[in-house]
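Before relying on records like the one below, remember that each one covers exactly one chain. Contacts with other chains, cofactors or solvent are not represented anywhere in the record.
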Amino acid sequence: MRQPSLKKLNDAYAEKFGFSMPEKSVLSFDFGLSEKVIEDISNSKKEPKWMKDFRLESLQIFRQKPMPTWGPSLEEIDFEQIRYFIKDTDVEKKTWDEVPKEIKDTFDRLGVLQAEREFLAGVKAQYNSEVAYSSLQAELDEQGVIFCSMEEALQKHSDLFKEYFAKLIPAADNKFAALNSAAWSGGSFVYIPPNTHVKRPLQSYFRINAARMGQFERTLIIADEGSSAHYVEGCTAPVYSEYSLHSAVVEVFVKKDARFRYTTIQNWSGNIYNLVTKRAKVFQNGVMEWVDGNLGAKMTMKYPSCYLVEEGAYGEMLSIAYAKNHQIQDTGAKMLHLAKNTSSKIIAKSVSIAGGQSNYRGLVFISKAAKNSKSKVECDALILDDQSATCTYPDMKISGENAVVEHEASVSEIEEEKLYYLMSRGLDKTEAMTLLVAGFIEPIVKELPLEYAVELNRLIELEMEGSVG
């Protein structure tokens, strides 16, 4: 089967998402990471002393931590050849008319404002290092829902912010968590009051516009007792010949009887290293659902986790990974059962084509205290040509009594009979394979809001163009 050219694939991406705008920053720092850069970031945000100290301590931890060696190679990353802060607007805008033209044009082309008008309860749009635009429906404001940038939360909700910030993912957790802790900028802060139900999704959109840029947003979410909400994030970047780094941290606290869903659709260009730490702490009878879609990126390493810390807590992970053109999607989930009668489910789907590699890397841990706990893991991989690969690395550590753990995995190719049938009905090979891939990932896609499900299917169609020989 012939290999598609890199230019053809990049052109297809660029037409929809990979365009770039001229850089017109109001504040940016030179390449490289140092105490001065960290202090300048903190000073530019007018942060309290405790946050500046936290950043500087995190920088020391980052320097001491070794690079991960257990997964795909990260040798290409040179931390001294990355810009750690680019601010494109002087203040976060609350109305669309105030947003600078280049940023407005970008988010218009990506459909962010159309989505807001049609079905979102609120939206945050981050451009490079900081949130450039934010809005919240009036009724949510009246209910006491807080949905703002992390910078605004630090200034206006400092007690709540400090109570939860870095408590679930400390700087010492891993090297990239330490890097984020030192250089974090932007991201969303969400607080849902007790017994409050947010009916429409809250959305954040993250855009990297510059080459050799590091984006280090940090998201903190607290769903208080008996509440429920759905948060959706999307990510894109232009196509550049040089790599950029996206290293986010997400902390979610799901209190007693609360339910929270966190949906991610990441469609990075092929020059992005996407290295993310996401973790949820779930209390009594709480429900945490991760829905994760990973397309694009040079390399993704992301394993959202649930710490099920009280009886009856439930964690779920539904993920799609699509790897092409020698991209590596190293994704999975971690479910840690730390209390009795907890349960979890992981369903992971992956598609590999045109030399792409998809890996499932997951952990199910059931502690001695987690009696009568249950977990189910399903990993299904679809390989579309003989240049692509997939690997599964499941890890099961079971100590609790009466635990029930299921694991099943499958690797398959497109069935020639199905392909022939669709082509005999007038579809060309690309259209037929795209339809079969859509059927393969349908169990995950159906969990998305309708507008996102339609967009994800369009993205898959775009990814398949030129990839089928």
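The chain is about 25% helix and 35% strand.
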